[in-house]
């Protein structure tokens, strides 16, 4: 009896991610959602600039590689011209919350019927560990070598909380992938974000609090602990907006 | 007989685009091209198309990237400062070999500049504009009729060569009204098996991408792209030859400057000076051959590049003519337009030079 296998929506290409990186788990969760909803054939994914830049090689559906931060605009174009297709972006914190913030906010406020997978690991990974818009106060990075000084560079951005203030978006949830229980919850959230699109409900964004042991300078185990101890207190998990559920409750 | 209608240049672009099978428009307001967006906003919903006002020029060009990669005809339009913002996206379109139309109704610069007509984005349009080795096909209309015709042509060429095309107009032609015959009949749409529009589980995935970390392979891609550009240069040059058979003075001018030049040529000919015009219609590929041929003619005294800029196209005139004859510049900048008299004075000077 098969109890576990690689999802069909992932190719056989070997991941390039570092040991202990959680991109691999998140790729699998996305692919499982595509499999479960049987939407691999109609799905079009958009890779970011960042560690997941080569995600186009890993997902078996049609893929784009977008300019840094522009994935929600690219997704908007694809979805508007191909409303029967399932369009998703896969973006990191620098991509989505720094250089691409305008594209993120406006896709959300237009309630574009797309799915955004937002990987928040509080650091720029691909370029070697610089301060991100989501780096924690005091966090040491290559470009905040004395720790993030909020008086000099400001505070981390809580994307879910901010987007939830908009009337537009359908669904906003923050999850984490640092324990088996959290991975299962993350999988459910990602599946819901895709189902929302299939049902035409609109913009769904799932923020996934993730680990970057390489650039955090930690062992993989320590990095997962750090998520519990430092990241989640600043970025509380939960559903920040669920327009359909709110309507039903009324 | 096809119907003749009176339209603004900007509106002619919009209507021609829709008739050419472009059902997707993304833009951001900026003078002097906003009529295109306004026309699209009014018309697209009634014709089954999409108009979307993007949050920025950057977002608009990336929406274009998305639609183009999914295999459909798409366009954006802007004016000079906005087109600067689009350069990143245009480089990605070129790198990913995607066809799309970008319209630039130029205004005076640099910086925020002004809102009056200009041709000072010639370098940006013809030499690349964004980062990396690439070209766009650049078409320069000089009448409202050509706004319509070249819009249609730009879509066909972009699709044929899988590369972005630009309609490089200026505020005068954008704003002026003239009679125009719009394209009729079925647009020339081609199959795009490379498009990322869903595998439907019937094929391997298509990838729209400009990243290539395999350095020798990225070099190979660049050489391949330039082989394609060589074919475009060989086959797609368009220009108007006006009174050049016996010309002793050759004006080179495009867009509104060419219309000014024609008035000056008429006045010169009345005075017995044989002036003629080579009007590039494609700015890239540039009509090098007719300029090189003119430079060889014994009776030709020289070239006058007439431009609404500080002198940009003149560099290509010098290169194409190999400087075998003098190349002079008549120019106004910042939104000013040369008068026929200014051009005539330069013609007289060049014609009288040997007397």
Structure description:
The complex is a heterodimer of chains A (250) and B (355). Chain A has 250 residues and is an alpha/beta fold. Chain A is built from 11 helices and 7 strands. Helices cover 40% and strands 16% of the residues of chain A. In chain B, helix 7 (144-161) links the parallel strand 6 (137-139) and strand 7. In chain B, helix 3 runs parallel beside helix 5 (87-95). Chain B has helices spanning 9-19, 34-43, 57-69, 80-85, 87-95, 122-126, 144-161, 171-175, 215-235, 255-270, 288-296, 313-321, 340-352, and strands at residues 4-8, 24-27, 50-53, 74-78, 100-106, 137-139, 164-170, 177-181, 207-208, 239-242, 249-252, 275-280, 282-284, 302-307, 327-331. Chain B contains 13 helices and 15 strands. Chain B starts with a strand and ends with a helix. Strand 2 (62-65) of chain A pairs parallel with strand 9 of chain B, so a sheet runs across the interface.
């Amino acid at each position: 009896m098969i109890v576990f296998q690689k999802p069909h929506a992932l190719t056989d290409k070997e991941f390039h991610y570092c040991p202990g990186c959680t991109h691999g788990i998140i790729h699998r969760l996305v692919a499982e959602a595509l499999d479960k909803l049987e939407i691999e054939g109609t799905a079009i994914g958009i890779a970011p600039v960042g560690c997941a830049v080569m995600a186009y090689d890993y997902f078996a559906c049609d893929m784009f590689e977008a300019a840094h931060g522009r994935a929600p605009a690219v997704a908007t174009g694809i979805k508007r011209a191909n409303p029967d297709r399932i369009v998703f972006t896969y973006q990191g914190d620098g991509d989505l919350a720094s250089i691409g913030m305008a594209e993120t906010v406006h896709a959300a406020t237009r309630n574009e019927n797309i799915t955004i997978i937002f990987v928040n690991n509080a650091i720029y990974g691909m370029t070697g560990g610089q301060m991100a818009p989501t780096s924690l106060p005091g966090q040491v990075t290559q470009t905040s070598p004395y720790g993030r000084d909020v008086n000099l560079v400001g505070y981390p951005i809580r994307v879910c909380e901010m987007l939830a203030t908009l009337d537009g978006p359908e669904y906003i949830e923050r999850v984490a992938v640092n324990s088996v229980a959290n991975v299962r919850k993350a999988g459910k959230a990602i599946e819901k974000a895709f189902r929302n699109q299939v049902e035409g409900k609109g913009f769904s964004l799932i923020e996934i609090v993730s680990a970057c042991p390489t650039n955090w300078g930690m062992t993989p185990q320590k990095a997962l602990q750090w998520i519990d101890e430092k990241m989640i207190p600043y970025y509380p998990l939960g559903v920040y907006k669920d327009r359909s559920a709110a309507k039903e409750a009324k | 007989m096809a119907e003749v209608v009176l339209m603004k240049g900007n509106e002619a672009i919009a209507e021609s685009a829709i008739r050419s099978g472009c059902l997707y428009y993304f833009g951001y307001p900026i003078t002097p091209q906003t009529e295109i967006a306004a026309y699209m906003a009014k018309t697209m919903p009634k014709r089954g198309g999409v108009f979307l006002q993007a949050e920025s020029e950057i977002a608009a060009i990336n929406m274009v990237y998305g639609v183009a990669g999914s295999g459909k005809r798409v366009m954006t339009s802007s004016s000079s400062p906005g087109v600067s913002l689009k350069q990143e996206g245009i480089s990605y379109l070129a790198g990913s070999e995607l066809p799309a139309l970008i319209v630039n109704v130029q205004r005076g610069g640099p910086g925020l500049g002004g809102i009056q007509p200009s041709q000072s984005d010639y370098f940006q349009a013809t030499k690349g504009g964004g980062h990396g080795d690439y070209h766009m096909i650049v078409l320069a209309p000089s009448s409202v009729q050509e706004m319509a015709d070249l819009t249609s042509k730009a879509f066909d060429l972009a699709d044929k060569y899988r590369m972005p095309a630009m309609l490089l107009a200026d505020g005068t032609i954008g704003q002026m009204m003239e009679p125009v015959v719009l394209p009729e009949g079925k647009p020339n749409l081609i199959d795009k098996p490379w498009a990322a529009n869903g595998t439907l589980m019937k094929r391997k995935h298509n990838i729209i991408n400009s990243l290539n970390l395999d350095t020798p392979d990225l070099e190979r891609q660049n050489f391949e792209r330039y082989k394609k550009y060589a074919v475009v240069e060989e086959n797609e040059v368009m220009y108007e030859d006006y009174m050049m058979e016996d010309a002793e003075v050759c004006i080179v001018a495009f867009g509104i400057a060419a219309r000014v030049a024609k008035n000056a040529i008429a006045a010169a000919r009345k005075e017995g000076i044989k002036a003629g015009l080579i009007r590039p219609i494609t700015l890239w590929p540039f009509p090098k051959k007719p300029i090189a041929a003119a430079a060889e003619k014994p009776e030709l005294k020289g070239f006058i590049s007439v431009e609404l800029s500080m002198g940009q196209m003149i560099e290509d005139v010098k290169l194409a003519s190999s400087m075998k004859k003098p190349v002079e510049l008549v120019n106004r900048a910042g939104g000013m337009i040369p008068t026929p008299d200014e051009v005539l004075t330069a013609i007289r000077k060049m014609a009288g030079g040997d007397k």
